[in-house]
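re: ur question from earlier - yeah i can do the single chain one, its not a big deal. heres the input i used so u can compare w yours
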Amino acid sequence: MTVRTLSSSMNSLPNELSLAIFCSLSSFSDVAYFATTCHHYRQLWTEHSYIIYQHVAPRTIPCRKHARVLLADQGGPSPSSGHLSFQHVLQLIRNDKVVEGGIAHFNNHCASFIRNDVGLRHPPYLTNTERPRMIRALYQTWGVALVDPTARKQRINAYKLKDLAVLIELGWLPHSDYLESDPTIADMLQAQHDPFEFIFVEIYPRFEQLIKDLHDHEHAGTWHLLKEYGYQGYITMWDAYQEQFRCMTLFGGLVEKPKRSWPPLPPPDTVWYDTSDDDLAEGVEPGNEHGPRSLCDVPGCCSQNPVIPRTDDSDRDSSESDDYYSSDEYSSDGSNRGSSRGSACESNRGSSRGSSRGSSRSNPFSDKFSLKNPFSDAHAVNDIFAIEYGPTKN
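and the output i got, formated as tokens:
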């Protein structure tokens, strides 16, 4: 059978069957390849992109609810909108690739240097349960940086204690290194304005106030009873510390429920929540094909504690959560509290700004993540290739 005959045979397929093939593909790269086989399939992709997205995204893009909130912050439709245009679907894919760049940056400069309490090295990447925690936080940080001051204050006040703790920890990351491709962020940087100063100017005071109101601590520093785990104390995302992080949020920094009469313990659903089904992609995470699926010796890691669905929290329709694990390998004596600040991760924070921009190989945040005019290219069928592999040359 010749190529022309094969192409003619594929063109003769009913639209319903062709659309079903699109929806069964495992990634948006496959969607792009299939769409470029003929003009008819390109037209199907552009006309039915949202239907295709609804079927393919659960296999490749985690945290889709947070992705929709960010899309709205970028000028797209509200998260509750039941339809997205072709350009909006492309923007969701672009945003996912930028966030994956942030994950790659953290893996390269932070996760690979992490050790746990007993000196065992963490895998050189975020595990399958740690990745969604960071992805949610990256979407939240990006979105809050884009909205106006009034909306920002309202959103920060609506965040639960769990969210605030995560965002404060991630405040130490050089977000501008990968989010500078966003036009709004780029304009702020060009104006010598730090788009992420709100983390410490607005979020941290709110966090301190909640700690005082809910748990009667004088300042947030007393809330951090655990020794720092890796770079700047990222206990909120590591599998090994999820149970302690949850207890700190619910009970004010104590591993066990305290016996106290004042202030009363906050209702759990006001400070903590488990995540929804869309936070974990069904298939292999994008950019993580070699996956965190290998065995490791870290207490609480995926090899020793498989993902266990939880339904005992306030989010009753959740089947998978921020799985948290208990471990005997904890330390609360505060020893070596300052030692990690001089780690290789900290030293790489400054060097990565200058060295990682020189080549596309070492820089995961190159022009292939460009967000210029995100909704303007009406004939951008091949934009998905630019998202995956870099801009095409005419």
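Residues 225-231, 283-382, 388-394 have pLDDT under 50 and may be disordered. not sure if urs matches, ping me
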